[in-house]
Amino acid sequence: MSSLNNKQILLGVTGGIAAYKSAELIRRLQDFGASVRVVMTPAAQEFITPLTLQALSGNPVHTQMLDPEAEAAMGHIELARWADLVLIAPATADFIARLVQGQGNDLLTTLCLASDAPMAIAPAMNQAMWRTESTQSNISTLTQRKVAIFGPASGSQACGDVGPGRMLEASDIALAAEKLFTPGTLAGKKLVITAGPTREAIDPVRYISNHSSGKMGYAIAQAAIEAGASCTLISGPTNIEPPRGAKVINVTSALDMHTASLSEAEQSDIFIASAAVADYRPLAIAEQKIKKANSDTMTIELTKNPDIVADVAAMKNKPFTVGFAAETQDLESYAKDKLKRKNLDLIVANDVSRTDIGFNSDNNAVSVFGPASTDIFSECSKHQLARLLIDLIAQKMPGH
Ligand code: C5P
Predict the structure, then answer these.
(1) Residue 278 Cα, ligand 1 centroid: separation in angstroms?
(2) Which of 13, 176, 216, 366 could form a disulfide with 150 if both were Cys (CB 3.0 to 4.6 A apart)?
């Protein structure tokens, strides 16, 4: 049975072209057993009629704050209390801004203020409006306030632009709403993950690093958040957007990552080391840019970096600790050796000699070894793989 069965959903429709999808959304929510009441802003009624949404929802559509007849049937406070979920789809940039400010200048914003039900929004707007700093800062404020943000999707837009800002399809919004009421496999857990490369300075302008993109670690962080965990992402320099809702600690060197990791791992349930940490760093960082010398060769003396994941696994209250082994040969034996030597609970092994998967690719295929287990995941996208790894970790953790 769906987790939305018998749930009462207040569907807010604001004024965007995607409002036509709200009609189908009502149906998809009803398919899951939910009952739906619709509130429309005046602008929404320019795009779709209340009559359509009334016929589909089977309930009168609420459009005005000061309507004695509607208030007599079901007052706005009663309506706010009725909702198990307030879902705004589409949510325009203007509506989002008013929500952030806590305005109550129409029925829908007033209901949002008056309801203590969980809230979700499906943004829909032009890509430039979505990308603009004010919208992005409004979205992060809402995320901090635990408002779920569904989408937006990327693609061609009604205005002819291409980019992020399209409202998710109705069936995807209904599925996302269903997930809100399904406790995640990592609900209540604190997860810390390292990701990306480290940079080891040689002098003020040069460093030693590697080709890690951070994609796998960021995808795992996102899957962990989707599974209900609170997630701290300790990231070396990357070019990718961190997942919404993650606490991000940006670091540069292995030593910085070590300090952040040991402090964050202290109170955590799970620690995942997906970063490609430099094994060595220059023994001394030159204060000034090193000048070209006459000699054809030069030597930089290196010193070993601390092993972050091994140090976390050696902690007294050790979290469930997962490492990665990127190998070009003898995958299984090297990975199993690392599992033991670093005292890990699981190790995710991947073959980095293949150029179609791993390091900079969007896909990956891995084998996961535990002290007495092997799980093989064949090639799929890093996002799919991340979800599978999170499920596996949830199963393997003590108490499951
Ligand atoms: O020993 P190796 O570098 O192959 O081990 C890889 C695993 O150890 C990865 O999980 C990586 O994030 C972690 N690691 C670490 N600190 C280091 C080196 C590797 O946490 N200094």
Answers:
(1) 8
(2) 176
160 plus 195 within the same structural domain: no
**Nearest atom, ligand 1, residue 323 CA:** 10
Please tell me whether residues 331 and 356 are part of one structural domain: yes
- The distance of Cα 77 from the centroid of its chain, to the nearest Å, equals 33
Residue 292 DSSP one-character state: P
* 357 Cα to the center of ligand 1, angstroms: 19
Query: Is the domain of 121 the same as that of 229?
Result: no
pLDDT per position as a tens digit, 180-233: 998 889 999 999 999 999 999 999 999 999 999 999 999 999 999 989 999 999
The number of folded domains in the chain is 2
Whole-number Å distance, alpha carbon 347 to ligand 1 midpoint, is 11
**Per-residue pLDDT band at 65 (split at 50, 70, 90):** confident
269 ligand 1 Cβ < 6 A: no
Look at residues 147, 178, 209 and tell me which one is the last residue of a structural domain.
Answer: 178
CATH of the domain at 32: 3.40.50.1950
Whether the CB of 198 sits within 6 Å of ligand 1 = no
Distance CA 368, CA 216 (A): 14
Which of 135, 154, 178 delimits the end of a domain?
Answer: 178
Whether 342 and 243 share a structural domain = yes
Interval 157-166 mean pLDDT: 86
The kind and range of the H/E element at 226 are helix 215-226
User: Which residue among 220, 258, 309 has the greatest number of ligand 1 atoms within 8 angstroms of its CB, and so is best to mutate?
Assistant: 309
Kindly state whether residues 87 and 236 are assigned to the same domain. no
Q: Are 97 and 139 spatial neighbours (Cβ–Cβ below 8 Å)? A: no
* Cα distance between residue 392 and residue 395, in whole Å: 5
**Which pLDDT tens digit goes with each residue over 125-151?**
999 999 999 999 999 999 989 899 999
In the block, tokens 């402090």 appear at: 263
pTM: 0.75
